[in-house]
Amino acid sequence: MNVIECTVGPFASNCFICYNADREALVIDPGAEDERIIALLHSEKLTPKAILITHGHMDHISALAAVHGAFPCPIAMHPTDQAWAFAPTNQMLPYYETPAAPPEIERDLAEGQTWTDAGFDYEVWELPGHAPGHVGFYFRDRNILFSGDVLFQHSVGRTDLPGGDARQLTASLRRLATLPPETTVYCGHGPHTTIGDELKHNPYMQALKP
Ligand SMILES: [Zn+2]
Ligand SMILES: [Zn+2]
Q1: Does the predicted model carry a pTM greater than 0.85?
Q2: CA of residue 160 to ligand 1 center, whole Å
Q3: What CATH number matches the domain at 2-206, 3.30.2290.10, 3.40.50.300, 1.20.1050.10, 3.60.15.10?
Q4: SS3 201
Q5: Ligand 1 centroid to residue 164 C-alpha, Å
């Protein structure tokens, strides 16, 4: 699996584009800079087969409607976050506008689902705490997790936004700590890391040790 890490918008959010040898792609969290993401997909000659959303915060979905408009394909998102993500309350400066809603969200994500898109198999893990409908995408056979804003390199997502819950975040991190240490984690912000490195160096993960 090839992974393009595209950092977008005022919060330096990571939009990931994963693609196979046939240049079929998954787009994860098109958060901002729709024109840049669309141009990148065109220039790399990629065909998105699905757009996956880790959670509803504006910095992860503000380019969703435009990217979907340019490359129609199923959108997958947890219904708990669909409920508030496109409402005017989902705003934080310098994002001045409510994220545009796509015409339809075809897939309601839920814990335990498995999907295959662009030839990649992945599991949906509900990981609440940073946002109530937050999910991670776990590609078990490739040892890859897209963690959204639950886990960052040497840090974790904040829990003081609406729907945030520190206890839930701790439970989500505890779950991630069970993954094989060699698992690569692509985070919603900042560089990618591994579970093993976070267990060693991330104070929040260290605190989970018995
Ligand atoms: Zn977030
Ligand atoms: Zn974020």
Answers
A1: yes
A2: 11
A3: 3.60.15.10
A4: helix
A5: 10
